[in-house]
Task: structure prediction
Amino acid sequence: MKYYPIALDVRNKRAIIVGGGRIAERKTLKLIQAGAKVKIVSPTLTVKLRMLLKAGKISWCKTMVREELITSAEMVVAATSDVFVNKNVAKWAKRNGILVNVVDEKDLSSFISPAIFRKDRAIFAVYTDGQDPRLSRDLKDFIKEKWDDFLSYRNRL
Result:
């Protein structure tokens, strides 16, 4: 086991997402749900991220990432399609003692994000120690689909 499973309290913590695309959007939504203060560093944003910005849920630094833009964060997620940018973000974060997740690059990351869903009072986090993210996603979807059956079986529905 390479990664120690942990649930991290990110309420009011500064989280920076590098990238403004679909994956950055998904990561942003989860961090907002957990109460983090999210800043996006990217020249562009998806429509949904622009809506979050307009609603005051996130802040945006409309530029390419530089090391000094991430040093105030307590965690950083690199969600770009640019390998060079992602490697630099990982290097800068580690040099500054900041938790970093480079999406789909576990070897550059100090933490990985499990596949997550919430149903009623339960939160499910499924991961494969970074070995097979698609299996994590598929297992999460399977549990989500079968949740009501499980509750019925356990006489809890």
The chain has two domains: 14-108, 115-153. Residues 41 and 61 are 5 Å apart (CA to CA).
